[in-house]
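help with these tokens:
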Amino acid sequence: MTGAGNAMSGPRWLGRVEGGMAAAGAGLCLLAIMLVTVVSVFGRYVLGADLIPGGYNIVERVLFPVLVFSALPLAHRDGTFPRLGLVDDRLSPRARAAVSALVLTVEVVVFTVLFWHVAGFAWQGYVTERQMQIGTTYWPLYPVLALVPLSFGLMLAEMVRLAVRDVRRAVRGEALGSSNL
């Protein structure tokens, strides 16, 4: 209903950042997950040796979170992120825009709270130099943790942009699909 539009709506720089994160972050992580899995399975079942010590931890604690949180802002912008929808075909354009603005305002509040908490968690991970065990060594976890508030921040920026757009449309009485902010 509130439709995030497509990757080209809104500020171009935001779309480029989100697209770059999805392509480079998520795409490269997916490739790395496949390579780590194939090499680990080959080593374990063909050679009888663990070729990548801690491969499971690398996938579970580094690659998979980076993959998910790199693609999340673009998925939200493209409208593939789960969204609250209403049966609003019988509403006037002004009422439809007002309902959309209200739903987006609720989303902004929820994501602001989430952003605050994940940013605090990421900051604590940085301050305490949080690490994880990979094989027999320890890797810093804070670079992965930093991606979470970045992802939520980009989604929050898009939600605020859409809420402002829908409030303007509700005030003007415009239909939701007429023009972009």
Confidence is low (pLDDT under 50) at residues 1-8. The CA atoms of residues 26 and 67 lie 4 Å apart. Residues 12-47 form the longest helix (36 residues). The chain has four helices and two strands.
